[in-house]
Amino acid sequence: MIHSHATLRTHKEASAAWLFFKRWLANPLSMASITPSAPSLSRLMAAQITRGPDEVVVEFGGGTGAVTRAILEAGVPADKLFTVERDSELAGYLRRHFPGIHVLEGDVADIRSMLPEDVRGKVGTVLVCLPMILIPVEDQRAIVDAIFEVMPPGRAFYAYTYSARSPIRRKALGLKGRRVGFTIANIPPASVWRFVRDGA
């Protein structure tokens, strides 16, 4: 039986959506949605990337690779992408479907120790694909501090949210943040926010 590329892609997307939903059922508070990000949101996140030739991109919360795929399609070489995923089943899925990228299994707050030493300080952009709005402020602080430890001074990180307000406690964490994009095509509609240290 011959399958077209479109049919194979549809099967792969259905499989990814089912796995994502199963992992959401297992731990709903750790995942932002019951479905993977739509292509519109994934492309919007990937469009924010800033990266020098020797710099890498870090993605927090790889899931089933919706944003991962958009990052690669935006031109980031696979070996320059580090994706952090805490769920071992999802991490395994990412390794199988994106064999050229670096999949780091663990807590995003430990990103400094998880990255190779020669990459620390050379992270051009961090894309946060986690439900930050549900995370307590002290845990947000640990994640934000970890992000800025691995990036050059003055850089920004990005996070998406389904809320009308910032997903991160800006004032409490000493951040400046602004909405840089919105898509109604995602379910639910989503905004992308840019964050820098206040005073940067």
- Strand count: 7
- The coarse silhouette is globular
CATH class: Alpha Beta
Element-level helix/strand string: HHEHEHEHEHEHEE
CATH superfamily membership, which one? Vaccinia Virus protein VP39
Second rung of CATH, namely the architecture: 3-Layer(aba) Sandwich
Gyration radius, rounded: 16 Å
Please explain how this structure is put together.
The chain is α/β, with parallel strands linked by helices. The protein has one domain (5-197): Rossmann fold (3-Layer(aba) Sandwich). Helix content is 35%, strand content 21%. The protein has helices at residues 5-26, 39-46, 66-73, 88-97, 111-114, 137-150, 170-173; strands spanning 56-60, 81-85, 102-105, 123-128, 157-161, 175-183, 190-197. A 7-stranded mixed sheet has the order 3-2-1-4-5-7-6, sandwiched between helices.
Q: How are the SSEs ordered, and which strands pair?
A:
Layout: H1 5-26, H2 39-46, E1 56-60, H3 66-73, E2 81-85, H4 88-97, E3 102-105, H5 111-114, E4 123-128, H6 137-150, E5 157-161, H7 170-173, E6 175-183, E7 190-197
Parallel strand pairs: 1-2, 1-4, 2-3, 4-5
Antiparallel strand pairs: 5-7, 6-7
Helix pairs in contact: 2-3
In short:
With 200 residues, this protein is α/β, with parallel strands linked by helices.
Keywords:
200 residues; Rossmann fold; 7-stranded mixed β-sheet; globular; Phospholipid methyltransferase; S-adenosyl-L-methionine; SAM-dependent_MTases_sf; rRNA (adenine-N6,N6-)-dimethyltransferase activity; rRNA_Ade_Mease_Trfase_CS
